[in-house]
Amino acid sequence: MKQPLVDYLLTIDPTDFSSFAVEMRIRNVSDTFHVAMVTHPEYDDRYWKYVEDFSVETKNGKGKIIREDSSLWKIMANGGEAVLHYRIHLPSVTGIRSSWKAYLTSTGGLVGGPHSFMYVVGATLIPSHVTLDIPEEWEITTGLQATSDPNTFYAPSVAVLIDDPIFVGKYKSWPFTVDNTPHRLIYWHLPDAKAFDTIMLLTSIKKLVQETSALFGRLTYREFSFMLQDGAVGSLEHNNSVTVGAPSSQLANGIGDILPDIAHEYFHTWNLMRIRPVEYSDVSYKKAPLSKGLWFSEGLTIFYADLLSRRAGLHVFDSTRLFHLENLIRRYSASPVYLKFSAEKISEASYGPAGMLGDYSGSTHLQGEVLGAMFDLIIRDASNGDRTMDNVMKKMLERFSGEKGFTSNDVEQAVKDVCGCNVHQFFEDHVYGSKQIDFNKYLQLMGLQYTMEWKEVLSNDLRPVPDLRAFSYQLPGENILRIGISNPTSAWGRSGLHTGDIIKTVNGKVVANSADFRSLQRNAKIGDTIAVEIERSSKLVKIDVLITGYQQPVVHITQLPTITEKQKKLYEKWVAGK
Ligand SMILES: [Zn+2]
Q1: 515 contacts: CB under 8 Å, gap ≥ 6
Q2: Distance from the alpha carbon of residue 506 to the mean position of ligand 1, in angstroms
Q3: What pLDDT was estimated at residue 59?
Q4: How far is the CA of 31 from the centre of ligand 1 (A)?
Q5: What is the DSSP letter of 342?
Q6: How far is the CA of 142 from the centre of ligand 1 (A)?
Q7: What digits encode the pLDDT tens for the residues 175-211?
Q8: Residue 244 C-alpha to ligand 1 middle, in angstroms?
Q9: What's the pLDDT score for residue 94?
Q10: Of 55, 167, 242, 251, whose Cβ has the fewest other Cβ atoms within 10 Å?
């Protein structure tokens, strides 16, 4: 097909912030073509629901639009040119807004990305320009490339156009430079915002950038924007920016709690945006296949958010690296899910349909971080302390910074090349398989051992905590509430309930939604019996759940009495975060 030329104009009316208008000017196009809105592989916010007043002009008057699917339109426009017009009518927000979703207020907001732009199907590699018509005195921050016109930006491909959100409005902005590369931190605040330590925030972010640059040996972008917002939660990585929900009410109590989120999303700039799992190839209006590689993309990102924060001297949740490792093993050992499903399967389930793992719930973030911690120990031992997981990350960036995506096999190859040892069995057992990790085997490489005890979970006032390890969910397109069991050995799993059972009544009452289910659960005390009526295979079944307490592991890591000089050296370097 022809390579079309596309220019966008996004207009915000200073008297109406309930919507914005998009004009898409297309030249050199077939008489009939398709436009679509991109489905993000992980956060599909389905803004095609909010497209209004869609029309097409051609050289010969109005063209025709046929909606072929929810996010796919067929356009008939003779003469090789078409101008599309549509509005995005912003949804009203219930609860707290997610930081990456498009929104507008009288003092600014977020536009662009998959929430704003359609693209010509089949033409994802074409560049485009975006011009913004915004209220006077508003400023613009985006990862898109600046041009000689301050209101016009350049996107080299649809992937970049869709990935880079555009922050517009009145906000505070602090530029800084690391390794000759321009960065900026912006903070958009609500009218009643609380004051917080902005200097500390800025210096902390700068240190994080310096440590990340030191790890990889260079920065991989032309410029970078940290876009923080008041009144929002959640955060999302982009090509050369991050959007982070950072309520001023929270920052006023200290910036420590927001830094791990910033470190996490920033590290995704390398590990996810550049070192990309093979399933996340080009943008599409269809949902990307579930990824088998997220244990690496998420797990190693969490691993490095912690490690780089330590190197930068920033606030971390666990005071020492040893304490952090104890906590990792404790959380990992608390659930049987990691002995049931491989790392690749739990990766797929991360963004798969609810209930995909049956009566189990697992975290690919946690599992991947545990695996990363073990690789690190194997590499340190095999290389006599000369190499670490840092070398694997660098190798992965060298090999996968282009278009090519990675698989777990590629991680295996990189770990093997760095340690010069055979890790195939480890991958067979713990990445492609789900065997128990023999933690002592790897801890002893640096002269450590661990013990684990199962103890009753207690509240702050030392009373047993009721076992509430079950949840409820709705599948897309369904109007019924289903139960989810997160651990088959929980009070709920033992009672005979299974993930997917349809909840009819709880204690004789109809439960309308997940919030109702949660509040019923919250009131449960140890010794209570909760009567759950469910529908399974078209039959009604009554099940009594006896609420009990439950146990979780407590992990202690200690030094081996027989520690060798080599083990001691490896430990000292590791615990210092080097
Ligand atoms: Zn992440």
Answers
A1: none
A2: 36
A3: 87
A4: 42
A5: -
A6: 21
A7: 999 999 999 999 999 999 999 999 999 999 999 999 9
A8: 12
A9: 80
A10: 55
Q: 14 to each of 18, 19, 54, how far by Cα in Å?
A: 10, 11, 21
User: pLDDT below 50 — which residues of the chain?
Assistant: none
572 CA distance to ligand 1 middle (Å): 29
Distance from C-alpha of 7 to C-alpha of 5, rounded to nearest angstrom: 7
CA 228 → CA 105, 219, 225, 335, distances in Å? 16, 21, 9, 35
DSSP-H helix ranges across 237-320: 248-251, 259-268, 294-311
Q: What digits encode the pLDDT tens for the residues 305-322?
A: 999 999 999 988 888 999
Distance (Å) from CA 321 to ligand 1 centroid: 21
Q: Among 311, 305, 317, 371, which Cα is nearest to 344's? A: 371
- Please answer whether residues 86 and 54 qualify as being in contact, where contact means their C-beta atoms are separated by less than 8 angstroms: yes
Nearest to 54 by CA among 33, 93, 32, 23: 23
Place of tokens 């390794």: 179
What pLDDT, on a 0 to 100 scale, did the predictor assign at position 47?
A: 93
Could you give the CA distance from residue 320 to residue 448 in angstroms, rounded to a whole number?
Answer: 15
Span from the CA of 201 to the centroid of ligand 1 (angstroms) = 21
Instruction: Say how many Å lie between the CA of residue 336 and the centre of ligand 1.
Output: 23
> Which amino acid, one-letter code, is at 123?
A
**CA 299 from chain center: how many Å?**
11
Query: CA 231, 235, 236, 237 torsion: positive or negative?
Result: positive
Written as six digits, the tokens of 167 are 């922050």
Distance 268 CA to ligand 1 centre (A): 7
Cβ distance 454 to 551 under 8 Å? yes
Residue 268 token pair: 């995704």
Distance from Cα 350 to the centre of ligand 1, integer Å: 11
Neighbours of 31 (CB within 10 A): 13
B/e letters for 484-518, b = 16+ CB within 10 Å, e = fewer, are bbbbbebbbbebebbbbbebbebeeeebeeeebbe
C-beta separation of 517 from 531 below 8 A: no
Element (H, E) at 242: strand 241-245
| DSSP 8-state code for residue 56 | E
First vs last C-alpha separation in the chain: 53
* 405 CB neighbour count, 10 Å cutoff: 16
Could you tell me if 222 and 280 are in contact, meaning their C-beta atoms sit under 8 angstroms apart? no
Sequence-separated (6 or more) residues with CB below 8 Å from residue 228? 185, 186, 187, 188, 244, 245, 246, 258, 262
| Pick from 55, 19, 50: nearest CA to 37 | 50
Q: What's the distance, CA 307 to chain centroid?
A: 19
SS3 229: strand
Note the pLDDT of residue 44: 87
d(CA 116, CA 110): 10
Q: How far is the CA of 265 from the centre of ligand 1 (A)?
A: 6
In this structure, are residues 87 and 43 in contact, taking their beta carbons and an 8 Å threshold?
A: no
**Radius of gyration of the chain, Cα coordinates, nearest whole angstrom:** 26
